[in-house]
Design brief:
By secondary structure, the protein is α/β, with parallel strands linked by helices. Helices cover 62% and strands 6% of the residues. It contains 24 helices and seven strands. A five-stranded parallel beta sheet has the order 5-4-3-6-7, sandwiched between helices.
Amino acid sequence: MSVGDVSKRILLGRKLRSSQLGETLLPKRIALPVFASDALSSVAYAPDEVFIMLAVAGASTYVWSWKIGLAVAVVMLTVIASYRQTVHAYPSGGGDYEVATVNLGRNAGVTVASALLCDYVLTVAVSISSASQYAAGAIPALIGHEATAAVVAVVLLTAMNLRGVRESGAFFAVPTYLFMFAILGMCAYGLLRLLAGDLPDAESAQLVIEPEPGWDGPLTQVALMFLLARAFSSGCAALTGVEAISNGVPAFRKPKSRNAATTLLMLGLIAITMMMSVIVLAKQMSIRFVDPHHLDRLRNSAGGALPDGYEQHPVISQIAAGVFDHFSPGFYFVVSVTGIILVLAANTAFNGFPVLGSILAQDGLAPRSLGSRGDRLAYSNGIVFLAALSILLIWAFDAETTKLIQLYIVGVFVSFNLSQLGMIRHWTRHLKTETDPAARGRMMRSRAINTFGLGMTAVVLVIVLVTKFLSGAWITILAMGFFFLVMQAISRHYAHVELELAADEQDKIMPTRVHAIVLASKLHKPTLRALAFAQATRPNVLEAIYVSIDTKATNRLLEEWDERRLDIPLKVLHSPYREVVRPIVEYAQEIRRASPRGVVAVYIPEYVVGRWWEQLLHNQTALRLKGRLLFSPGVMVISVPYQLRSSQVAQEREMREDERVHAGDLRRGRVSSRESRRKDR
């Protein structure tokens, strides 16, 4: 096994056969952390954004925080109820894209796909950036290097997902469940202390928030509504990731739809409970929280400025520090698992993006390489592509969550709206043909749920666009437009290629003549083999050509040719500028022009070597020549391999790898016990 193969196996694990795809399917206990970690992790930053927006007018507006949390919870329940209809109606994994394409047309589907692609990239960027902020708060050495830490985290997450969805799911399950336990346990203990009357104030409770300019007077009704709308739109970041389950239905064990719907319900109930608990506790502990870039708006109780280097800790950190004021391990446990879950939350996108990319590739809207499964049956190219885009975004915005969050939500709510509208069309179409009263009742109930969901998500989308457009949402809209145009261009390209390659009657016409050319650099075994192979094809004309750049070498070759009395003519092409490739290409093109209905067949002897470094020492001219000749109409390129002794090393290595018994082969019945003992010997 080569060094490259060893490294790949260490990184990814052993290869999986296509027939083992069923072994990678997920039970609900693993599917929940795989697909729900994004929505659950939003508890770590969605409440922060609500308080940041409300703090624009001072701490007095925090009284609205729990009401905004309830509004977000209602929208989340509505969206989850709607997606439960989707996973039953469209279990193939296309999710919003399939719903929109089937019911609203191709352009609507491409719009949804572009929105989801943006959302998945932002999911990784926001989650990892938020985790790097938590890490910098715990490890002072990382302050100022958050972007670098975030990039490293994306690379590690990519490596885990390249090992396959089941392996990554099992790895991520424990931290996700620990996060649920930590947040729910902290909130339960905090609420018990609140009922007992000994819940302490947060570390920032004694601070005073100065309103932003223009918000320091009494708020008019319009200003208050706009402020609440901004806070609500930021809080709706908690809804991101909900759609991932509808895109990942094929990864569930059977019955796929029912398991996916159950996981959706579990996700909704857990996420809402966690979010509302955090918001209520934050309000009761009098937390003061502002935009990290406007810390100068925080004042001490006497109205003076805070000391230089003041660090504003996230909402969950402040709650944990207060709730566990006499039990520091509890605080460190909550902060640690929160930072970890923010990294793992990006795993939702790493499972949704590649599946969506493979579906788009099948439909001709994305490069077909995105539809190929890797050694571990994961869509490796999609995983790497998502990682590259996310790293680019993290580096461009310096891993600042507050900036990235403004780009968030727009894409996912665009897909929400088109998906709900598509589901309404779906149920309306089926109601026209359905006659069973019970089935019609279920369809009408489902349509009512999707109609209500459309109304809610449409309102949220309008609010998001109005409140976030100038703050950065316009970048997301431009990105969606870019993806839309690129996918349309790819679709047109594939359509044109398919039309151009369609077989017709002219393809049956035989060439009038075949002019065969054998390249000769020396008179050795590879050249003689190429000459013999070319003779066996019985062309109309056969000749060998040699490019002369050295007179002595040319004369020596001509003498050897005459001594062997070869009956194949050798033509010498003189190259005064010592070029090898150009004379051959020009000669082949000249023959083609002289006989437009004929074919020029160029035979190129090539060495077959067994070690990667040997490839660097041989065949370089042949590679350049093939690259040039492939663009010449009517010219065919034939490689004639000659296996050097080192090629046997690679062949023997592959044979040993094929014969090796892998762990679990005997248990799975791929080899018998006798074969296993024989191969072990």
